[in-house]
Amino acid sequence: MTETPSVRQTVIPRPAAQPRRLRTFMTRILAGTILPGAGLMLSGRTLAGGLFLSFFVLGIVASALTAIAIGPTKAAILVATNPTLLIPLAIAAGIFILLLIASLIWTADLNWPSPAGRTKKALAGLTAFLLIAALIAPTARAMQYVFITSNLVGNVFSASAPKGKEVGIGKDPWAGIPHVNVLLVGSDAQKDRPGVRTDSMMMASIDTQTGDTLLVSIPRNLENAPFPSSSPLAKIHPNGFRCKEDCLLNEVWTEGEEHAHLYPGDPRPGLTALKESISEITGLTPDYSVVIDMKSFQALVNAMGGVDINVKHRIPIGGEVTNGNIVPGSIKGWIEPGVQHLDGYHAMWYARGRATTDDYNRTARQRCMVNALVKQVDPWTMIDRFPQVAAVINEHIHTDVPQDHLPAWADLVEKMQKGKIRSFGLNASNTNVANPDYRHIREMIQASMFGQPLPTPTYTDGRAVPPAFRSRPTPTPTPENSISAPSNTTPAPATPTVEDATDADAAAAC
């Protein structure tokens, strides 16, 4: 009998798993966070890591080239003001962040420290959690901003352009448009008073090449406000806006609303009527308009972080005037002279207070406020406070700037911040509000736009009007003796301060 030879099997033991150190884990997961895909490449997954890193680098290079070509601020504004571009980019960025988080989890799994005690495992888990949280938190906030921005653009900015204004795209969207005119209106609607009264009116005429801006203040108490022949209201008021009482410029909005049937299909006939009248007054056709509820102005300034203003003289907070005298106790406080950082409440009274001054002084301060806000807008503060700013704009500001013009406005706003803002006001020194010479007003505004000397008003026969007869100042209230101020302050001036209306650098004038 033949014996079967025995087969000796040799079992080769599996190599012991290489120990994975905590330091290696920390290095690779941190590398994967800073350079997406780098952690996977260091862990031996070169194909997956390389693809991820390539997409990341391509995105960074494309963004950098765009920012270099048109400027980082303009690039950001162009994206933010274009919902059709903003939403897809946000979705793509969100997907990328989710993939990045998945890559970090994969990197953590490949490099999890072993063998390791509880302390090392806890440190590894905490590190991974903090890095992933550091990606999720800003991504969630960015997504919030994206949807707030998209909602803001859709609600505030119109879908169609105003008649007669077409802007282009590309490097010079304002080619062929030397100036663009924006009517700024502060409305003062109150529950105990019907209609909307335009508390403040300014025309901003912007040089589209340099960004230089002329702010023209228009008194609310102008009488005989004219309408162009093309206006429906010209048939009712062929010789200007006249009636027995209260036919001032700030009543034109209400007049338009009361004759809404003359503006069929117009959702804001009052605003249209006001734009028509101001066009005839100034000789400048409003290309766009912005209307803000004056009460919301306080919230807007607060949302922007306040504003720095050089206060020239004491401004009352509150103040009620009866028969030319200030009602005792109606002034609640004062904004003192000097450079001040004003919150929304005090900024509103700086722009509105007139118990101890007059309308002309107030309009001069309003021009100073607009200049300060334009020059002091801080992009980082705006980003930090964006939800608050957007909420105020969404609820209280109306504009007819169309959505597809926003990229062009991004270019223009950047020029405005670099340009010079000049100021011109119609006041008691150059305008008789009771019987205005509108031809002369248009001549003064044209001279101010191009830095020319202001023309001298003349009679119809060509004779110059003496200075004493050029205006009829509005009577100004004087404080009564019974009004007391804090012991460390001086009484408010009884005579109003009339601001110089000459064409001047707004920053220097303020």
Question: How would you describe this structure in keywords?
Answer:
7-stranded mixed sheet, 17 helices, 12% strand, Aminopeptidase, 510 residues, two-stranded antiparallel sheet, elongated, 13 strands, alpha+beta
Overview of this protein structure:
This is Putative transcriptional regulator yvhJ. It comes from Dermatophilus congolensis. Residues 452-510 are annotated as: Disordered. The protein has 510 residues and is α+β, with helices and mostly antiparallel strands. The protein has two domains: 22-156; 179-509, LCP protein (Aminopeptidase), CATH 3.40.630. The protein has 17 helices and 13 strands. The protein has helices at 22-34, 38-42, 46-70, 72-80, 83-110, 118-156, 233-236, 252-258, 269-282, 294-303, 344-352, 359-376, 379-384, 386-396, 406-418, 438-449, 506-509; strands at 179-187, 198-207, 213-217, 288-293, 307-311, 315-318, 321-322, 325-326, 331-335, 338-342, 397-399, 421-425, 504-505. A hairpin with a 2-residue loop joins strand 7 (321-322) and strand 8. The relative contact order is 0.11. Residues 459-503 have low confidence and may be disordered.
Q: Determine the structural class based on helices, strands and strand pairing.
A: alpha+beta
CATH class of the largest domain: Alpha Beta
| Low-confidence runs of at least 5 consecutive residues | 459-503
CATH architecture assignment of the largest domain: 3-Layer(aba) Sandwich
Order of helices and strands: HHHHHHEEEHHHEHEEEEEEHHHHEHEHEH
**What is the beta-strand fraction?**
5-15%
Q: Indicate the multimeric state.
A: single chain
- Give the overall shape: elongated
Arithmetic mean pLDDT? 80
How many separate domains make up the residues?
A: 2
The main β sheet shows up as: 7 strands, mixed
Q: Please give the count of helices.
A: 17
CATH homology-level superfamily of the largest domain: LCP protein
Bin the helical content: 40-55%
The largest sheet has its strands arranged as: 11-4-1-2-3-12-13
Intertermini distance: 122 Å
| CATH fold label of the largest domain | Aminopeptidase
The total strand number stands at 13
Compute the gyration radius: what is it? Answer: 33 Å
